[in-house]
Each structure stands twice: as C-alpha cells, then as structure tokens.
Amino acid sequence: MAGYEGKHFKHKLTLILEGVAILCYAINQSPANLIEIVSKFYTKDKQPEDRPSSPLRDEPLNVSVQLLDQENSTCPELEEYSIKTIDDGMSVMAITPYGQIIGVCLNGITRKKDSEELDIHNASEDSCHNKKFCKIIKFLQHIERESNIFAKYTEINKILCVKILSVDCSWRGRGIAKELMDKTREIARREGFGLVRADCTSYYSAKALAKLGFECVYTLQYCDYKEDDEIVFKPDPPHNEIKIYVQEI
Ligand SMILES: CC(C)(COP(=O)(O)OP(=O)(O)OC[C@H]1O[C@@H](n2cnc3c(N)ncnc32)[C@H](O)[C@@H]1OP(=O)(O)O)[C@@H](O)C(=O)NCCC(=O)NCCS
Fold it and tell me: CA 52, CA 71: separation in Å to the nearest integer?
C-alpha cells in the first residue's frame, strides 16, 4: 500500500488495524486525500505552507482556545508533541484497504520515575511561545498533579498513555475510536504495561472508553477550572468535562 514511507510511522506498520480495515472496506467510502493530511501533519520536515489543516482542529480544548481556528492553521508545538509521542513506537492508526488513514491513536510511555517531571514539555510560559497551546499544557499538568495516578496504582511502573485520539470526521460514530483503543490495549498487554490511560477531553472519547470497560478515576468540569477567576475552557456541550479513564492490563 502506498503512503507509508513516513519515517515516523515505520514502526507502526505492523500495527495496522485489520479489523478496522475490513470494516472500512465493507462501508466502502474513501475520504479524499486523508493519507496526505495525516502524513504531512505528522512530518516535522514539512514547511508550514505545505501543511494542510489539522485533523485535531475540532478537539474540544483546541476549539475552545481557537488553537487551529483557520482552515490552514498549524501549531508546531502540537506537532512536536505528536511526533515525540510517535517516537515511543506504540501508536496505531486505522487505515482502509485503499491506504487511507482514517484515525490515529498516539500512545506515549509514562514511567513512574519520570512522573514527577511530567513528560509534557513546553509547559512554562517562558518556554512555550504559543499562549493558546500553553493554556492546554498547563491544564494537562494540573490534572496530572490532581489525579496522581501512580499513587493510586503503587505496583505499576509504566503506563501506556493515549496522548492523541482522532478520527476523520467523515468516519465518526462507527466504532473506529473503540477499535483503536482496543488495539492499544492489545499492544499494552504485549509490551508489559500495567495500565492503559486516556485523558478524555471529548464526551465521545469518554463514551468509547466507558464502553470498553475502562474505569473513570478522575473528572474535572471545565467550568471549575479557572485562572484569575476566569473559566479557561468553554467548549460547546456535550463536552463539559475532562475524564481520566484507566484499565489495568
Ligand atoms: C472523539 C473521537 C476520536 C471519537 O471517534 P469515533 O470513531 O467517532 O468514536 P466511536 O465511533 O468509537 O464512538 C464512541 C461513542 O461516541 C458516540 N459518538 C461518536 N461521535 C458522535 C457524534 N458526533 N454524535 C453522537 N454520538 C457520537 C458513538 O455513537 C459511540 O457511542 P456508542 O458506543 O454508545 O454508540 C472523534 O469524535 C474525534 O476525532 N473527535 C475530534 C478529536 C477529539 O476530540 N479527540 C478526543 C480527545 S480525548
């Protein structure tokens, strides 16, 4: 199949979702140029003008801070965050038999010994020049501290964390996210992770995780997260809260 030469996906090719591919084949649709969008989005060598609109434009926090508000908006910090995650070699993508990428689940490794440092980089106002992205990172750090997952699972030394989950909009509501998560769980089992974790900013990703039997261990309503007495994120309903879901493997 064409289009898999991208160096960041080279380890992931063996993880192609057979089940999803069959499902997509049965549905028999072909989202135009999707493989280009995803491969360009996750390739750091591309010039900004070559990058198409991001598949993460409608993630609730991104929408709320208008991170990628224009058709051709980009966020190099988000791309760097995504690429860093892909480099862990645990990510999966859903593709059709025609080679179209219709969903990605970017999974990163979090080890207990690193957890105090937080693997989220570019966190401080000084080091992150993109103020919108910085708001999101600060929020993720806040819930990391508040949820304190390693303290709840003292026997567990490494967690497979879902950092980015995205399905092309023309394929949503057909179980692709659930398939990606199921495959992620399989990888976690094979690679000896004690726990899979996903911080669900979207009502729909939370629903997918709950359906797969994940346990919700932390919830924060967006209206309860404030800076200088101002609510920071106001996504449209039904995205009212962030939920952390985990499953022991
Ligand atoms: C969140 C997202 C990945 C879900 O992908 P998906 O493939 O549509 O998810 P699934 O088909 O597995 O659906 C999960 C559940 O949400 C429901 N759902 C998904 N999209 C829906 C929609 N637009 N309206 C109503 N229900 C929806 C599904 O019906 C399913 O519920 P069910 O099991 O009760 O039927 C996708 O909406 C997306 O990419 N959103 C933008 C990026 C984002 O928000 N990522 C998540 C950040 S944590």
Answer: 8
Higher pLDDT pick, 206 / 18: 206
Q: What is the 57 CA–ligand 1 centroid distance (Å)?
A: 15
Choose the residue to mutate in 172, 196, 240 for probing ligand 1, maximizing ligand atoms within 8 Å of C-beta. Answer: 172
Cβ of 64 below 6 Å from ligand 1: no
Judged by average pLDDT, the poorest of 26-30, 138-142, 223-227 is 26-30
- Going by C-beta distance under 8 Å and a sequence separation of 6 or more, which residues neighbour residue 129? 77
Task: Give, in order, the Cα–Cα distances in Å from 125 to each of 18, 157, 160, 220.
Answer: 43, 30, 27, 23
208 lines ligand 1 (CB under 6 A): yes
Q: Is 198 exposed, middle or buried (0-12, 13-18, 19+ CB in 10 A)?
A: buried
Mean per-residue pLDDT for 34-47? 38
pLDDT of residue 40: 37
**Ligand 1 contacts CB of residue 86 (under 6 A):** no
Whether ligand 1 lies within 6 angstroms of the CB of 182 is answered as: no
Q: pLDDT by residue (tens digit) across 123-182?
A: 455 567 889 999 999 999 999 999 999 999 999 999 999 999 998 888 888 888 988 898
Decide: pTM greater than 0.90: no
- 207 ligand 1 Cβ < 6 A: yes
Domains and CATH numbers, the chain: 7-248 (3.40.630.30)
* CA 133 to ligand 1 centroid distance, Å: 23
